[in-house]
Request: fold
Amino acid sequence: MLLTIDVGNTNTVLGVFRDDKLIANWRLTTARQQTVDEYGVLARNLFTLAGLDDAEIGGVIISSVVPPLNWTLGELSRIYFGHKAMFVEMGVKTGMAVLVDNPLEVGADRIVNGVAAFHQYGGPCIVVDFGTAITFDVISAKGEYLGGVIAPGLGIASEALFARAARLPRVEIKDPGKVIGTNTITHMQAGLYYGAIDMVDGMLTRIKYELGSPVTVVATGGQAKGSKLIDHTDDFLTLTGLRIIWEKNQAADAGKGTATQRHSRLPAPARKAQH
Reply:
């Protein structure tokens, strides 16, 4: 089995794959202050409740946009699962060229989403991820990462209203059923919910215009709904992308090992003749 971990600013999502099938998943609050042992106990409990044996885990791959947690999760993998974690970072084979000014600026989760979307739905495609921020990532017909957009997420917008306007309360973010609200709560819900939907549809329209060709739109994240321009919704897109990247790297390592093994079997004179 493979353990995949997607660490976001607000939530951390864990998934367990047996071959290519996602057999368990959990969404947790990203807790920067938890220790290795606290994460370990939590992980063990989750596995027990799901009826899974953590000893069956054959590898761990992590996508993280919260660098302070990387060491903790790396130790979690080493101590509690017996494996060195693979982090999606420079040097990891993704199969996706990143055609932006500075590839290091692009969050690992966005590359992972792009890999999964292209694998599942082909290209060109746009990935919309509804997380702490709402991100748009554009993948070419050749599977290249072309760039994207970052906009404030619904949670950020809601907290900003509460923090900066003395008489506005915190509200549940949901579809109020109509745009014209009849009280402060529904006024805010309409502004947040429909405002986000219209922003997404407007941004997708602009991106499609710039691309100038038909494109598939794939959405993921906790609030991926409502837009008229989304073709597919995939709640586990990032976990799937992590699995695909893991498999690419395992295949690449196996290929290197085979090549080294073949080379080592060559007789000494033949090796000398090749140099």
Notes: Confidence is low (pLDDT under 50) at residues 258-275.
